[in-house]
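Give me the fold.
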Amino acid sequence: MSLRSMILASVTPLLLTAGAHATTFGLGNSIGAMPSFAVTSGGNTATFSSQPGNGFQVQNTLGLFSFSTGLVDNNFFGTDPLTISFSTPLIGTVQIPFAILDFFGSNDTLSVTTNTGQTATFAGLGSGTGLSDPQGVATLQLNAPTQSFTLTSNNAFAIGDVVAVTPEPSSLLLLSTGLAGLTALGRRSRFGRR
């Protein structure tokens, strides 16, 4: 077996094992809670907060939305903002299932703004009539370590469990080591042929 074959055989599994770790900030154990409350997962604490007097409350939403437990804005005609802060900054991707509480069928969106100034707007899918509220998953690829973000909408809204997907440091190390090995092999074979 040639040196090149041995290196490729040892590097390929390293490239394939590059993975990520998902941390779910589940709302299921917080039924009845109103902001400000905290959920801890994977050593990180997410604090959910809103303005005093706003109608957010954790409720069982099974059958109403695609998520079974949600933080719901009971102020149906309000546009209350919700802030989620983290004890340890997030990197990677954040996923937030959401539903817009709109019974009148207007153009429904959810906006997410991070403390670093990154903003994204997500459209809810659905008719917005009756109980088929527009729903979706806000997936935000963070461009910098993020300590908090604020969610706003043109209508009242509900969110499900927040999921943070973070690249594993060990996977990144393995990936970079594999790439360095391939680079060295390429240089050796290129300079060795002269």
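The chain has one domain: 18-172.
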